[in-house]
Design a protein that fits this description.
mainly beta, five-stranded mixed beta sheet, four-stranded antiparallel beta sheet, 9 strands, about 5% helix, Cytochrome oxidase assembly factor
Length: about 190
């Protein structure tokens, strides 16, 4: 929530009331910024996830609509959730999402394929930031993960901790033993 409100660490601002009409006026005299789209997914999520366009070019203050497509390749209904990032990270405070599939979990039925919209703009205040003056290219990157809830809304009963950790990208890292596995008096 902190990152979404401040733009910290390349997280675009969302839900900040920044969408008033004067913000959504394209600055015709400004240079266009090329926004590239990237799509990844965790290994444990059997979905195909791709951007429907490689890039768009936008003026600061101009809204743009882009689409991603997701397909559930499994025979089970699955809920996924997307995280996102903007690079270079100094552009994140100016990258604002009006509507995005990443705001909520997405449930795909077995074999279902859906288009997922994204409506965004780059705030015209970017023009006043000396750190952003030479930036002509921005990358918006999404990664979809399997949600810890199943398609019925219950916690995944079959998702063992090692599966969850692998889904989150931590499968190769050694973890400390669980409290119930520790032997009293042993500091392992």
């Amino acid at each position: 929530m902190f990152c979404a409100a401040t733009g910290f660490a390349g997280t675009p601002k969302v839900g900040t009331g920044r969408f008033e009409a004067e913000r959504l006026v394209p600055i015709e005299s400004a240079r266009r910024i090329k926004v590239h789209f990237n799509a990844d997914r965790a290994e444990a999520l059997p979905w195909k996830f791709t951007p429907q366009q490689k890039f768009v070019t936008v003026l600061p203050g101009e809204t743009s609509l882009a689409f991603y497509r997701a397909k559930n390749m499994s025979k089970k209904d699955i809920i996924g959730i997307a995280t996102y990032n903007v690079t270079p990270d100094r552009m994140a405070p100016y990258f604002s999402k009006v509507e995005c599939f990443c705001f909520e979990e997405q449930k795909l039925l077995a074999g279902e394929e859906v288009d997922m919209p994204l409506l965004f703009f780059i705030d015209k205040d970017v023009l006043d930031d000396p750190a952003c003056r030479g930036i002509d290219d921005v990358v918006l990157s999404y990664t979809f993960f399997r949600a810890r809830r199943n398609a019925q809304g219950h916690l995944e009963p079959d998702a063992e901790e090692d599966v969850v950790q692998k889904s989150l990208g931590f499968g190769e890292y050694e973890r400390s033993p669980k409290a119930e596995d520790r032997v009293p008096g042993n500091s392992a």
